[in-house]
Amino acid sequence: MPRSMKASYVCKMSAEEFWALRMDLGFDQFQADERNGGFKLLENVIVDGRVSRTTVLTFKENPIPPRFRSYLGADEFSFKVRAKWHETKYDEKNRMSYTSEPPVMKDKITVSGEQWVEPISDMQCRVVQTATIGVAIFGLGSSVEDSLIKQTEQSSGQLPQVAEKYLAVLKARKEAEAALAAELLAEDAVATGAASEEVVGAQIKQMLAAEQNDQIEAIRREEAAFDAEDEGDGDAASDLERRMSQALAEDIEEDEEPNAAAGAGAGGPPKLAPRLDELRKFARAAAAEVPRCVARRAEAKQAVAASKMELTRALAAAETAKLSLDILKKLHRTEEKAAAESTSTIRQSTTEALQAAAQKAASCLLALPLARDSFIKAQAEEEAAVARLAQAIDASAAADEVVAASSSAEDELFARILREKAEAERQVSTSLSERWVVWEAVKSKAGLPPGSPKGVPKGVPPKVGVSGKQGG
């Protein structure tokens, strides 16, 4: 009757993290490495979130004796596992189911089971495992079932620890990759720029200083020009008015004499009025241009102030760049120091590993003669056992021949006995007939009536002596 088991174990990771390991083929390979075995993927199909996977799990130790491996077709001890589960759902309703096919006696050994996960917290979950094992081998079913049940309980009990170990290995690998990337970047920076960082820093400082000086000189020139323009704004306006008044006076003086003469002679109006109106229009236009010039000057001042602000920001950025450069230098020094320490640590670890490997190699060399002797001894014992087996086979064949010969002799003896018995019966029959004839002759001589005497069965003559009388 099939045996069943159910067990649950707490795993120190979330249910999502544990179930995600089912999709990671690296986890299957890691489990195989933990048991010193092998892993091979035969099929991996995902349809609508349902996963169907077939794998072959091989084991380093083969419990089948070497002489029977070729006979049973089990040179390599392996199990073919067929599993089905949902990609993201892991509760009992969506549990994983699997079957395991042994390498021998597939029709007599059946292994199946189920697995699901129950969340406990963000850092813990419970892994539930069931298994049903049936062995239909006469006389060995119960013992084989017990052995397989124990192995299943042991492997399912080790699964959470293996998963935790694999997750830790993944995290350590990611950290190591990040550290290695940072180290490579640091080495690249050291190789390309650290050797000339002083020169680069000096060049940056020179460029910043030159740019600052150019901006400062340009702003100073603009300020001087605007200051000079501010100081001359009033003089320019008054000068414009003075020049306009002077031009007007000159025009008036030029026109007074002809106009006066013309007016005295003809009595007409003077020609000064149109010229005066034109000059007044020009003065009003010039006066209107003054506010616009003042506005443009104010805008220019605002632009100068903005330039000053940009210069201040540029100076602040330069200071920030200087600080960043100093920080970069310190970081480079720290990285160089860390790289030196890491190199020293790696060198020390490598030395220790080499020493340990050398010690192990020495131990192996010392143990090699013993192992060779043990192997030779085991090989001799195996050859002796094979020789004994051959002798036993020969003895069995000789015994079969003896049995066959004995059976033939027995048949011949039985046939001879039958022949002798038939001959004896024939002789007895002949003797009885002769004795009956003699008996009848004796009776006729003695004058006795025919027939057998009293106490003698009919047809059996009595014993007759030499004299012909009836014996006692």
UniProtKB/TrEMBL annotation:
Entries under InterPro entries matching the protein: DUF2505 (IPR019639)
* One Pfam family recorded for the sequence: DUF2505
From start to end residue, where is composition biased (Low complexity)?
453-472
Q: Which domain of life is it from?
A: Eukaryota
Annotated region Disordered: the residues are 250-273, 445-472
Q: What is this protein called?
A: Uncharacterized protein
